[in-house]
């Protein structure tokens, strides 16, 4: 019998314990809601190349389905748990790492990220006239290629993400580096990655909004060479109110990234694996925003009943 409210308190006082739901009654909460997980998975599996099997008997063991691996990797991204913690009877931690490396070699997640941005631009529209760039430092306790002494965490190992977003906060490009790298040298690589991802920023008239950490003559000259207007807060002066109206978009995007705990506490040591997780996070963010903003404009078969 299940007790609640006053009856539960009375039962505790007399030494009785209320019953808890068993395994059959317990409902697991998915890492991503189905309306978000399914379209990402459908496009992801369409990008996977056909696997060639040269073994005369096919294989010694049955290959674990890609759907199982993908579901586990989504859980690792969202919850930030270790591979051995998320592994179970359906899949081992070694298989998760091997399949992850296989997909990195194919470049599937980068292709998926490009497709997601193209879909958003086609149905909603990217606002590339106003681009904001900023960095975000997170923990990297295991060190690695993209780890360095964090200036905001008492010199502990950390990783910096330099992210570029459009006028609505959609991540359009970014690079990762050790936490002790300054923001300014990462600006041009970030802009170049964004330019490649969206098929080119506007040739003239586009503005790049930056905080005072980028305020230097070199930064302004490099942006001018690319035909971009530098909107940079000046050191030693309070930023005008209208400047924050553009820069807060990238701060919000950084918080969306940090909602994926794999990026907050990243134990990966290889740079290509860290870039894989950042790109995976970008895909989830872009598709979520596409569904949310498209909910008011379009109708489709799997449209959620409520606005996400």
What does this entry show, briefly?
The protein has 308 residues and is α/β, with parallel strands linked by helices. It is 46% helix and 12% strand. The longest helix has 24 residues, at 271-294.
Give a written overview of the molecule:
This protein has a domain at 128-270: 2-Layer Sandwich (Nucleotidyltransferase, domain 5), CATH 3.30.420. 46% of the residues lie in helices and 12% in strands. It contains 11 helices and 6 strands. It has helices at 5-13, 34-47, 66-79, 83-86, 93-106, 108-123, 183-197, 217-225, 241-258, 261-264, 271-294, and strands at residues 130-139, 148-149, 157-165, 171-178, 207-210, 229-232. Strands 1, 2, 3, 4, 5 and 6 form a 6-stranded mixed beta sheet that branches. A hairpin with a 7-residue loop joins strand 2 and strand 3 (157-165). The two termini are 36 Å apart.
User: Approximately what portion of the residues adopt beta-strand conformation?
Assistant: 5-15%
Radius of gyration: 23 Å
The proportion of residues forming helix, as a percent range, comes to: 40-55%
Low-confidence stretches: none
What is the CATH topology classification name of the domain at 128-270?
A: Nucleotidyltransferase, domain 5
Provide the succession of SSEs: HHHHHHEEEEHEHEHHH
Figure out the total of helices: 11
Intertermini distance: 36 Å
The CATH architecture classification of the domain at 128-270 is 2-Layer Sandwich
Mean pLDDT across the residues is 88
Based on CA inertia axes, which overall geometry fits? Answer: globular
> What does the main sheet amount to?
6 strands, mixed
Name of the CATH first level of the domain at 128-270: Alpha Beta
Strand count: 6
CATH superfamily of the domain at 128-270: Ribonuclease H-like superfamily/Ribonuclease H
Q: What structural category do the secondary elements indicate? A: alpha/beta
């Amino acid at each position: 019998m299940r007790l609640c409210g006053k009856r539960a308190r009375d039962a505790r006082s007399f030494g009785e314990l209320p019953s808890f739901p068993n395994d059959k009654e317990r409902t697991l909460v998915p890492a991503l809601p189905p309306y978000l997980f399914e379209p990402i998975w459908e496009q992801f599996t369409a990008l996977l190349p056909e696997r060639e099997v040269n073994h005369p008997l096919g294989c010694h063991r049955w290959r674990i389905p890609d759907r199982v691996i993908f579901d586990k990797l989504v859980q690792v991204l969202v919850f930030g748990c270790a591979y051995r913690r998320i592994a179970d009877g359906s899949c081992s931690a070694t298989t998760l790492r091997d399949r992850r490396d296989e997909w990195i070699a194919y470049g599937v997640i980068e292709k998926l990220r490009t497709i997601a941005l193209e879909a958003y631009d086609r149905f909603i529209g990217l606002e590339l006239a106003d681009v904001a760039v900023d960095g975000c430092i997170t923990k990297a306790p295991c060190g690695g290629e993209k780890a360095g002494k964090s200036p905001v965490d008492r010199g502990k190992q950390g990783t910096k993400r330099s992210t570029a977003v459009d006028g609505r906060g959609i991540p359009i490009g970014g690079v990762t580096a050790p936490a002790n790298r300054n923001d300014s040298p990462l600006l041009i690589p970030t802009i170049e990655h964004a330019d490649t991802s969206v098929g080119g920023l506007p040739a003239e008239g586009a503005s790049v909004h930056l905080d005072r950490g980028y305020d230097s003559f070199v930064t302004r000259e490099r942006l001018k060479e690319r035909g971009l207007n530098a909107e940079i807060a000046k050191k030693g002066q309070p930023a005008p109110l209208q400047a924050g109206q553009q820069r807060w978009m990238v701060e919000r995007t950084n918080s969306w990234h940090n909602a994926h705990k794999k990026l907050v506490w990243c134990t990966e040591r290889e740079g290509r694996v860290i870039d894989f997780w950042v790109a995976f996070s970008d895909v989830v963010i872009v598709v979520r925003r596409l569904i949310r903003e498209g909910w008011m404009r379009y109708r489709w078969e799997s449209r959620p009943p409520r606005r996400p």
